[in-house]
Design goal:
Helix content is 31%, strand content 25%. The protein has helices spanning 3-23, 27-33, 38-46, 53-62, 67-71, 177-185; strands at residues 83-85, 90-94, 102-108, 125-132, 135-139, 142-146, 151-155, 160-164, 169-175. By secondary structure, it is of the alpha+beta class. Residues 186-197 have low confidence and may be disordered. α2 (27-33) crosses α3 (38-46). The chain has a six-stranded antiparallel β-sheet. Strands 6-5-8 form a three-stranded antiparallel β-sheet, with no helix packed on it.
Length: 197
């Protein structure tokens, strides 16, 4: 067995145990879910039994993950530098696990638009946390005030816009694949009125 194969083998075994423990399951509970004997699962986790592909598939399903995630080894790019757009005060970090998702940090100085026609709607979900200051989230007919360290999550099919209240604010937003596509159709990430896209 080469060193790489041995390291992967050890990593997968540790991952199986860590996922089981994170779920709060005993060996017996996971063994039942994976249709294995408790002693077989114990030997798999402890490296005393060979890892068989069919068992890995079954264990991945029982642990609510995929085989790819169970055997993934790419941990080289742990730290990511942002792409910076200084003219709009925007930093963007792509999420590697899902190329359609991204994290955006933005400084806002303008309030959200008064005109409802300036609000945007598109498929997807967005999540944001206010890092400093106070943000206003216009969501349909609602006007929500979001203070420092508060977060908001909403479906983007609801017309929405985001802006600052009482001075600049900084937000960190996460856009799912659909929301990101909706923003890209407009050709910008955030407009002058502080509507994040």
């Amino acid at each position: 067995m080469t060193q790489e194969v041995g390291e992967l083998d050890s990593l997968v075994r540790k991952r199986i145990r860590a996922l089981r423990v994170a779920q709060g399951w005993s060996l017996e509970e996971l063994a039942t879910r994976a249709n294995l004997s408790q002693s077989s699962l114990s030997r798999i986790e402890n490296g005393q039994r060979r890892l068989a592909l069919d068992q890995l598939v079954t264990l991945a399903r029982a642990l609510d993950t995929t085989l790819d995630q169970l055997v993934e080894t790419a941990a080289d790019d742990v730290v990511t530098s942002p792409m910076i757009d200084g003219t709009r005060g925007l930093m963007r970090w792509p999420i590697k696990g899902d190329a359609g998702m991204s994290v955006v940090r933005q400084r806002m100085t303008e309030p959200p638009p008064d005109n409802p026609s300036r609000m945007r709607a598109h498929p997807g979900r967005e999540w944001l946390v206010v890092l400093s200051g106070t943000a206003i989230l216009m969501l349909g007919h609602r006007r929500l005030r979001i203070e420092t360290n508060q977060a908001a999550e909403f479906p983007t099919m609801m017309p929405h816009a985001i802006g600052a209240e009482g001075g600049p604010c900084e937000i960190l937003g996460i856009f799912d694949r659909d929301a990101r596509r909706g923003h890209q159709r407009d050709g910008s990430d955030c407009d002058a009125q502080g509507t994040c896209e």
